[in-house]
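Protocol step 4 of 6.
Sequence for Carbohydrate ABC transporter membrane protein 1, CUT1 family (Paraburkholderia phenazinium) entered exactly as in the expression construct, tag removed. Do not edit the line below.
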Amino acid sequence: MLNTTVPPASGAMRPRRPKRSRFVPRSPAFWFLFPAVAALAIIGIYPLLLALYNSFHLYKLADVAAGTPFVGFDNYIATLSDPSFWGALGRTVCFLCLTLPIEIALGLFAALMLHRTALPWLRVAARVGLVIPMATTYAVVGLIGRLIFNRQFGVVNYLLGLFGIPPLDWLADPTLAFVSVMIMDIWQWTPFCALILLAGLAMVPKEAEEAARLETPKWSKILWHLQRPYLLPGLTAILILRSADMLKMFDAVFTMTRGGPGTATEFISIYIQRIAFRLFDQGMASAQAVLLLILTIVLSRLYIRFVYREAV
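Step 5 output, structure tokens:
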């Protein structure tokens, strides 16, 4: 039987697929990442650029009719010459230098205890218990602190009364108010340090750890010579994240002490909030926020350079 199919002519038109625009990506990964990138741009990048723009302009909410004239670096110069700004920044750095080492030390102690325990159920229960303070929001932590350190019915004064110590006015005394904020922050974020360091200890080879324990019974030598390299990456993450959190700490302190008494707990974030929404000087507050961001970046780079470098 003869094949009667006629081959198409060389010049015949074939159906073509519709062309896609070169600006529309074909990869499905793009469409999965696009919502997160868009949210990051709207929530994070746009406010940052707006703050950077406002920092170079005179922008006062109480005098909107005056507009936002360009003033260059005047806001930065005024900020750097403001003693109140340096006072708030000094209190913040003092809070960081006092609180963060305590959190790391207590977290390391808890991580070592959980790492050495031979009871699996105790590890699980401890990890669940450690998550609870971290899951508590900052504002709630501040409200809990107001109740715990209340002069009349606070738990702390009740416990001190059992030892014959008269009640202390924790939130009205400048030093005690600062200490009370430290205690609440240590309570909330020591579990975070413990979990991160416990994850680092879990990376240590069991054979090497058992051999080290047979060679020397001193846990300090095992910690320094064997476990320390595995702890440094987690320690670097703790330093970066907690330093950034403390430099922008606002909710817990504001709900607990309102920055008082006086300026005893007025950290840099509370000071910026006062400039922006009580004095209505958005330009000055934006310049202070940009300087705080620069300080956070510098600290992060120093941590990576001098702490993380020892782990590699």
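Step 6, annotate. The chain is about 70% helix and 0% strand.
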